[in-house]
Amino acid sequence: MKRKLLFVTSEAYPLIKTGGLADVSSSLPIALHALGQEVRLLMPGYGPALAAGHFEPVKVLHEAQGIAILEGVLPGSEVPVWLLTHEQYFARSGNPYLGPDGRPWPDNAERFALLCHVAVEIAMDRLGLGWKPDLVHCNDWQTGLIPALLGDEPGRPATVFTIHNLAYQGIFPHGTFLRLRLPVRFWSPQALEFYGQLSFIKGGLAFADRLNTVSPTYAKEIQTKEFGYGLEGLLTHRRDRLNGILNGIDQEAWNPATDPLIPVNFDSRSVERRAFNKAFLQKSFGLTPDGDRFLLAWVGRLVQQKGIDLVIELLPKLIQWPVQLAIVGSGEARYEQILTQWTRLYPDRIALKLGYDEPNAHLVEAGADLFLMPSRFEPCGLNQMYSQRYGAVPLVRRVGGLADTVEDADPAHLSAGTATGIVFEEASASALERAILRALALYQDRASWRSLQRAGMGKDFSWQRSARCYLELYDRALHDRANADGLLRKVVRP
Ligand code: ADP
Ligand code: GLC
């Protein structure tokens, strides 16, 4: 069955990316398109996004304010994309959510409320674009108002809301609720009110026909106080509408056998060729060139969620071990500063590339021995999958998608040849220490290490399977919607 799907997101690779949401927002629509679905993307027309593709205006909504819909395709694919432009809201450079001071743009509520209103108009085919979706797939808080606003529209499409990260909720003061002129009935704990504030994400969680998150374990975790950020009650209440679908990865962009961003290509039969990449990585990061030195790596946001503070806490001990550390990342200023100080103290042992750096992210995956992901929570996580594919053995905490994608090198998995990484439990520097020492010991036994690498490289993390799960989810949402419609018709016409 061909479904018409409107996929609404605040970022999509390669138009703009701050994290995994952008990867998913391009890979999933591309996979759905390949499965014969009619999928279209809607996202804000940020300056960098406009520059990254070829887009033509198809609808002018407000000439003076530069509000328009431009049409193009996701570069490198046939998936149609609509970009919503707004001179004041979106034509700025830099991070889509944060200003140069690292704080959220002060008009974020207005910016993403506009995205939601326009999505509703498209969903109801009121903009003269001549296309009405069967289902709107919303992602994260920036799109949360869509299911709420669509709620009462007669003949509306079905809605699915995906939680990529529950820690970001789009919370604003009551004054913002008034300023946005949202319907008064939404000011209730059953709707958008969250302890006296406006919550964008609640619009998705409370109103979407179906909810999902990006791994089965995270779907369970967010129903608990520890991971629910105050929304565990609502999520538990809707648990029969909530499931977890593991993200896939773009296995073409992340293929060590063909990756143009790495010096030497390799596959699971030629893992030893990684040694060239390791040497190149050490050289270009200014680390002592030494093929035997255990090379630890990090690629990702330098924030508490990812457990960078645990790594920092461990550095005084770590520096005494025979290891090196290569970091590619950006994030909170305090972590960037401390890490910079450490690299000044030990330039040949600890290296840091600050900023968003795609080529070095690939190089690290292709050359490092151990990939660190000691996340406090991790809805899915993509890097542990990239690193398994590249033979950089992941060391992860047993949370969320990390628990679902990495097999610990315990005796049972090791002897079965299914171990792919090191998994540890507690979010503490001492637990991380024990895990790294365990990895270091395993590394000494090169045959076991190779077996870990090969098992990881042989895993299938393709989108095909996940995209089929999304099709099932869409069908359930369409079914719920059709049922609700039927009920409504019965009530209205006795
Ligand atoms: P999250 O979305 O929570 O940041 P994910 O693991 O889902 O975590 O996705 C992160 C994505 O962003 C990956 O594709 C990763 O390679 C990329 N990434 C993160 N930080 C950087 C960086 N500094 N340079 C290059 N790529 C990065
Ligand atoms: C979020 C999560 C990450 C997930 C990504 C894509 O950014 O933090 O774990 O992989 O979304 O779903």
From TrEMBL:
Molecular-function GO terms, alphabetical: alpha-1,4-glucan glucosyltransferase (ADP-glucose donor) activity
Pfam families with a match to the protein in the record: Glyco_transf_5, Glycos_transf_1
Domain Starch synthase catalytic: residue ranges: 4-236
Residue positions binding ADP-alpha-D-glucose: K17
InterPro entries with a match to the protein in the record: Glyco_trans_1, GS/SS, Starch_synth_cat_dom
Annotated metabolic or biological route of this protein: Glycan biosynthesis; glycogen biosynthesis
Domain Glycosyl transferase family: 287-450
Annotated TM spans: none
EC number(s) per entry: 2.4.1.21
Catalytic activity: [(1->4)-alpha-D-glucosyl](n) + ADP-alpha-D-glucose = [(1->4)-alpha-D-glucosyl](n+1) + ADP + H(+)
Keyword terms: Glycogen biosynthesis, Glycosyltransferase, Transferase
EC class of the enzyme, as a word: transferase
Record-linked NCBIfam families: glgA, PRK00654.1-2
Physiological role: Synthesizes alpha-1,4-glucan chains using ADP-glucose.
Family from the record: Belongs to the glycosyltransferase 1 family. Bacterial/plant glycogen synthase subfamily.
Annotated HAMAP family: Glycogen_synth (MF_00484)
Record-given protein name: Glycogen synthase
Taxonomic source organism: Candidatus Methylocalor cossyra
Gene name in the database record: glgA
